[in-house]
Amino acid sequence: MKLRSLFLLAAILVAASSYSQKKALNQITLEEAQKQMRYLASDALEGRRTGSDGNIRAAEYISSLALEIGIKPLPGHNDLYQPLNYLKVSSVPGESTVTLTDSAGNNPHTAALFPLMTPSENVSYSGEVVFAGYGFTNTEAKYNDFAGVSITDRIVIIMTRKPDLKGSGMPDPNEDVSESAEVRKLPMLMLQKAKAIFYVADPALGSDISSSTLSMGSSYQLVPLFKSQAFTFSLNAYSITRETADMLLKNAGVTLAEMQDSIASSKKPASFIIPGLKAEVKLNVSKDTVTSFNIVGYLEGSDPILKNECVIYTAHYDHSGIDGSGRILNGANDNASGSIGLLGIARAFSSLDKKPLRSILFFWTTGEEEGLHGSTYYAENPLFPLENTIANINFDMIARSRRETDKGASNNGKIDITGPDTIRVISAHESKAFVALAKESCLKAGLHPIDEGKGSHFSGSDHYPFHRKGIPAIFFFTGIHLDYHQHTDDYEFIDFDKLLKVSKAGFLTGYHLASSRERPVIDNPVKK
Ligand SMILES: [Zn+2]
Q1: Ligand 1 centre distance from Cα of residue 319 (Å)
Q2: Ligand 1 mean position to 358 CA, how many Å?
Q3: Handedness of CA 426, 441, 317, 402 (dihedral sign)
Q4: Looking at the DSSP assignment, which residues form a beta bridge with residue 114?
Q5: What distance in Å separates the CA atoms of residue 387 and residue 184, rounded to the nearest whole number?
Q6: What does the pLDDT look like over 240-289, one tens digit per residue?
Q7: CA of 335 to the centre of ligand 1 (A)
């Protein structure tokens, strides 16, 4: 073949390939994305928490769509499901109580407890009760709610928030109850071996805790049965109503409001053991075995040899269920968005007349919010050899942009949400070529990539187990917004334009990796 016709052929090939790429990109549509978001982020799916019916319904929806698109089960499999079994421990409604008696066991009085976290076993014990202010210590101000009173082996009542010792001595009126601030009080209490911790809304807060915001609570705990060492955890922390707190304090002839006022006026702790009072805590749990599913399928590569290698796309479809106040966490950005991105990319690849040389795996993970369970399990039990898995592209939160309200700190971390035309590209830079390709693909899709290297979110999503196995991985991420892990992560705040652009950038990245004869060069291998 003459040189000129070689050039001509090359030009035709490039044109043909960019034509088919364009055709493929047109498969990623707003209409589909909106339709899928309307379902996946709806209340009907109950927050898609692993171990719930809503999670199963989300799995069925994604799996049937993927099959419809043309994604195939891996060889030797009949469907796209990889099961993960759990022991589901739920607290039995109405069976979490505290019963108060005098020291002789007379005059019993029973009230409800609201567990912050479901313990793994039934709970039953009794003990003395200590009032310990806010459960707060501040060395600089020489303030210590635990000074001079032992909480060891006792049940401790603490109020939410903290006193403003430089101001009125009351909690700052602009400060709401924050889950993370309350969680920070726990290590001190646990270190001193308190038997149980009762949180009560401090009276200055206005609203009471049972109808308020202390939402560490979840209605069940999951114990993974697929791990050789199942980790169970019992935190004996509960919220109680103010009425219950007053009932406990009655034996000392004081009220909670009086105790708060007294701390405020003296700016000194007012902790004490409530005299002549015994409290008995009882909580019953029920246990079931439940199954959740990783969803994994593929499109076979077109090269007889290279089809034995693959690029794997990941996005978790599970979310966090229902919060302690009964509000559904719809997880529209986290991570209905990434799951939908993956469906669009699957459709784009499926539409190609000539598939890339390598195979493409699509993996919707479960158990991510419980601790990267699905992806970690897959990394130990892969359905396609890991040594032939050349790269991982992960999507977790790809469809939010900065809004007016995204200021300060969210409940769960620093707000670093990107603007509408920008996306974070997170990686350990295992392969410069791969990162460069991802960035170039973003630009082609109309996005500015922020190459933040590992940054502060590196270990927080499903690419991480792949990275640990030595597979170069890239994670597309909007950043943290105010509604992160809140019931307000909803459909109406989704930036669909961004969702489509990130999906297209992801498609182009994987397309080029899977179409190149060479694997991406690894210049910064993972140290094992
Ligand atoms: Zn997520």
Answers
A1: 7
A2: 28
A3: positive
A4: 239
A5: 42
A6: 889 999 999 998 999 999 999 999 999 999 999 999 999 999 988 899 99
A7: 5
